[in-house]
Design goal:
heterodimer, A: Nucleotidyltransferase, domain 5, Nucleotidyltransferase, domain 5, 2 domains, five-stranded mixed β-sheet, 11 helices, 15 strands, B: about 150 residues, mainly alpha, 2 helices, binds adenosine-5'-triphosphate, binds magnesium ion
């Protein structure tokens, strides 16, 4: 080892390791660092540098804002599906680290969805070994589980019994935890935030007899701004179309109808698929789980009133009162839970 | 009597033998084929995804080129019209029957509309294909520790 390198090594050991929590999701990547929480769109847009002719990348929120539907969201169900997507994820994470000043000397706990697809996990592992952060150490956890750690009990949730319902963009993850161990989990693409976006787009088409065709990212913006099951406020949107004239429609209707359809599909999935499968797989666990609480998390749980309506509908369907809780800020809960793990590791070292 | 039994056993044995020698290999063969079919199906799914992607890209290029052509056509018509008007002069313009030009303009506008509609249709095809494909990929996992790596 050269002198310079040696000096570097010493510096590394001496300087303080920064604990980081990071949830990598199909739609949003969330980074928790101290009290700071950063939310970045998990997308990338390749372009050509006009001077050098080399490949250049615009990533994250900037890519989403500038390019809309042209920006590439490289993950599905939170994991890369092939080498190409893994490469994009690597470029994305490397740029995120640079842009948001995440130092190399960090301990990073990553959150990813539960999956049986080993290929995806292996690709993810390869990617994080190439991203220049987490020199002090890294580990990967189930992101739904991590979200539970963001509840007021914090690490105290590590040996509790509960069900996490993680409402993501491309999938919904339902994870049953007994005394800190995952007993059973199911993932579905039949209930997802992305589907709601498409339904909203179609609903707007229906309301305007095919005249107004918004793109998916606009539909998503509408959803995030106007979805509200607590109070339906009438919101009117007017669009001026070249040659076709002016079109008005009720935005609240266009958004909340699909959200209600989504909620019904969610309750159906839990009562007709998840719970029966769990009962078949492990009856004892099923009995215990039924009496425990449901934790609703993920970006779609941000919708006002969704938790309360979910609680009512689920209780109705099951024929008894179910307790449902949500961490504060369900969109960022997994990353904050991951941060707790990193902090624990750094303190111990 | 015992001969009857023997015969029965013989025929049973024959049946069993054909089962082992003929049917079993056949079954094995069909299991193998099923596995292969599954593999082929999987790669077909990947292929469909790829094709869908190219189809959409091609459609975009096609749409753009048609739009460009229509625009330039429109320009040409407008320019000719201007030239014509200039030549004829303001006073005699009213005498000309320009209804066919209006017709032409209308047709161009309609064509533009249908091109736009085409791209709407394609995006809907895209989303419905994507939906079906993804829905079919439901996974179930049983794992012990919440820590993955
Ligand atoms: N305030 C909000 N109101 C309504 N929906 C929201 C809000 N914030 C985020 N969402 C929606 O939540 C979803 C993103 O949630 P989340 O970040 O948990 O998903 P993800 O982890 O990226 O995706 P996946 O779990 O499928 O990999 C998107 O559909 C997004 O539109
Ligand atoms: Mg997620």
């Amino acid at each position: 080892m050269s002198e310079v390198e040696e000096k570097k090594e010493v510096e590394k050991a001496e300087s303080n390791v920064v604990p980081i929590g990071m949830k990598v999701g199909s739609q949003r990547t969330v980074i928790a660092k101290g009290d700071e929480v950063i939310v970045v769109e998990t997308c990338i847009k390749e372009k050509e540098n006009p001077i050098t002719g080399e490949k250049d990348y615009v990533i994250g929120n900037e890519a989403a804002e500038l390019y809309g539907d042209e920006a590439v969201y490289m993950l599905r169900g939170g994991l890369p599906g092939n080498e190409e997507e893994a490469e994009l994820l690597k470029i994305f994470l490397t740029n995120v680290a640079k842009q948001y000043e995440i130092p190399e000397n960090t301990y990073v706990t990553y959150g990813i969805p539960s999956t049986e697809a080993e290929e995806g996990v292996n690709l993810f592992k390869k990617v994080i070994s190439q991203v220049p952060i987490g020199w002090a150490g890294k580990e990967v956890w189930n992101d739904s589980f991590l979200a539970a750690l963001a509840l007021p009990e914090g690490l105290g949730m590590l040996d509790r019994t509960f069900v996490v319902v993680n409402l993501g963009s491309s999938t919904t993850d339902v994870v049953a935890v007994r005394k800190g161990e995952i007993v059973f989990s199911m993932v579905t693409g039949e209930v997802s935030g992305d589907l709601v976006d498409r339904w909203i787009k179609n609903e707007i088409m229906n309301l305007t007899r095919g005249a107004v065709n918004v793109d998916i990212s606009t539909a998503r913006e509408y959803k995030e701004k106007y979805a509200n099951l607590k109070e339906w406020k009438s919101v009117k949107e007017t669009v001026q179309l070249f040659e076709k004239g002016q079109f008005s429609f009720r935005l609240d209707e266009a958004v909340n109808k699909p959200v209600e359809r989504y909620l019904d599909a969610l309750v159906d999935f839990i009562t007709l698929e998840f719970l029966p499968s769990l009962a078949e797989f492990n009856f004892k666990a099923y009995k215990v789980i039924l009496e425990s609480e449901f934790i609703l998390t993920g970006g779609m749980a941000e919708i006002p009133g969704l938790k309360e309506k979910f609680e009512t509908k689920l209780s109705e369907a099951l024929g008894f009162g179910v307790k449902v809780r949500s961490p504060e800020n369900p969109l960022t809960a997994s990353a904050r839970g991951a941060l707790l793990i990193s902090q624990l590791r750094v303190r111990r070292e | 009597m015992s001969e009857e039994v023997l015969k029965k056993w013989d025929s049973l044995f024959q049946e069993l033998k054909t089962f082992v020698e003929v049917d079993l290999p056949k079954m094995e063969e069909s299991v193998k084929k099923a596995v292969e079919r599954a593999k082929i199906l999987e790669s077909k799914v990947a292929e469909v995804e790829r094709k869908l992607k190219t189809f959409i890209e091609e459609n975009e290029t096609f749409k753009r080129s048609v739009e460009e052509k229509l625009s330039s056509l429109e320009n040409i018509v407008n320019k000719r019209l201007e030239e014509l008007e200039k030549k004829v002069g303001e006073e005699r313009k009213a005498e000309l029957d320009l209804s066919f030009v209006e017709e032409l303009k209308k047709e161009i506008a309609e064509l533009k509309n249908s091109v736009a509609q085409l791209s709407v249709d394609v995006s809907q095809i895209k989303s419905s294909v994507g939906e079906k494909f993804w829905v079919a990929r439901e996974k179930k996992a049983e794992r012990k520790s919440p820590r993955i790596l």
